[in-house]
Amino acid sequence: MTLALATELDEINQQFSAALHALEAALRSDEPDLVDLGKRRTALARHARVRLNFIDGKLCPLLAAGPTPAHGAAARQLRQRIGDIFAASNRHIGDWSSADIAADWDGYRDATRAMAAQVKALLAMERRDVYPLLATAV
Fold this sequence. Notes:
This protein is mainly alpha-helical. It is built from 5 helices and no strands. Helix 1 runs antiparallel to helix 5. The radius of gyration is 17 Å and the shape is elongated. The chain starts with a helix and ends with a helix.
């Protein structure tokens, strides 16, 4: 069961990371292509929802029921970090309408790169702290 969950998490994270990289690639342009950017933002949001549903619905409950205190701590830490990033992402999305992006492309790129760095740090924490615990989860 846990091997299947680890495999599923890895597949979800690969799709999510690909969508994040696609958004980052759009940031390299000197001028925004708002239509393309909108598609990339929507794709990233869709993959983020899939990831969040998986983590909340399957991964964290499994970790919380794990055999050691480290499992429960990992579930709590993961939920906290994801909650923090989700809130920051919602603020970011709310702060950057298409008109705002067009008016301040450099500001949007900086803000998006900072948001992406937070997400990448979360993914690294999962690989470091969560994946090893899946081998011994219930």
